[in-house]
Amino acid sequence: LLNSGSCKYIYPVIYGNKYIVIVKTFWFTKVINGDDVDLKNNSDYSGRVEYSCIKTFCSLKIFNVRQTDSKEYRFRFITNQQGGKYTDLQVKTTVLSVTPSETVEGSKVTLTCSSDANPAAKYNIYRVNEDQHGQLVSTEIQPVFSSIQVSDSGRYYCAAGNDLGSRTSPSIDINVKYGPKNCSVSVKPSGAVEEGNPVTLTCTSDANPAANYTWYKENKIIANGSEVFHVLAVGSEHRGSYSCKAQNLHGECNSSSRFLDVLCKFSSFIFISGCISISFISGLWSQLQNHSFIECVLLIANNFHLLSISFAQQQVKLIVNQCCFLSGQFDFTEV
Q1: Which of 35, 92, 229, 297 has a CA between 20 and 30 Å from the CA of residue 16?
Q2: Span 69-93, pLDDT tens digits
């Protein structure tokens, strides 16, 4: 991630019957209108250089080294005397670069290892494995991923070498981006939920970068943004099928639907035997008499629910077809 160079200089303690004092030290590569431009004031190196001077020994550190950093670096010290001297330091770098800079699954990606070397260098490109060791990927100077995959994500570096020595580049991270996959909806608590209790639905997906989420109930949008849809107190109006969509810049996916069951709370029941009128869904009127099966409207906790009622002697069995999943035996009482 960094490269460094150093310089040791000497100067006379006294010159022209005057003590020499070092006023300023700095490194530069560029000269504008005869003036040496301090690297710290050079926009190409903004925030990437660090100087250190101990007596007459000065060093330069360059962070996040780039291929464009391979050039001649000069050191200058300025004294309280007119004029001045500088010495030269040439920094050679080995750099691994990736093109394009943003890697998307399925796209073509090129790695390039470059170095200043004479005679010409041979190149090896490595991937850092789980044991933090380099695993050889290619001996080419410019290997190509024709269709890069998520499994290719990782840390890479290259080494350049000739008969005179070798240099290793700083490592780079390849982070392969991809659209959402494997979308699904989970409900907590699982199973049917009684009215008034909280319920949380969570949409999960595998995506890079992280996805944004859209929630649907019966295919109609009910919420945007978060992967979590939370209901503090569930009611009969929340019963239905829920699904979600996960989306980022590189794609989207839709989950299958999950059905949320809501159990209604029954506050009171009155069943009347004999010859009595019951209101049908259609608004018609009929009598129980000797019917063995009938669909009717029953007012339960101030909500209308469609029930199937079958009669057997002095008991009635309720099986809920809509709004709630609830069954049970209830006394059939004369009023």
Answers
A1: 35
A2: 777 788 888 888 776 555 544 445 6
